[in-house]
Specification:
The protein is mainly α. It contains 4 helices and no strands. The termini are far apart.
Length: 57
């Protein structure tokens, strides 16, 4: 598929592809959720930041 996109010499085709499958738009999130493919993971970044960088403000 990337070879085909590259052959078109159209930078908009690659941009359109990336926007369709990479950018977390509400539409993409809904499609993933409808197919049980959306994962929500709590990374607890505040706790990790406090643990590794206790003096960070």
């Amino acid at each position: 598929m990337f070879v085909m996109l590259e052959k078109t010499k159209d930078t908009n085709s690659l941009k359109s592809f990336l926007e369709e499958v990479v950018v977390g738009t509400p539409g993409l999130q809904a499609r993933l959720e409808n197919n049980y493919l959306l994962r929500n993971i709590d990374l607890d970044l505040d706790a990790k930041l406090a643990r590794h960088f206790p003096n960070f403000t």
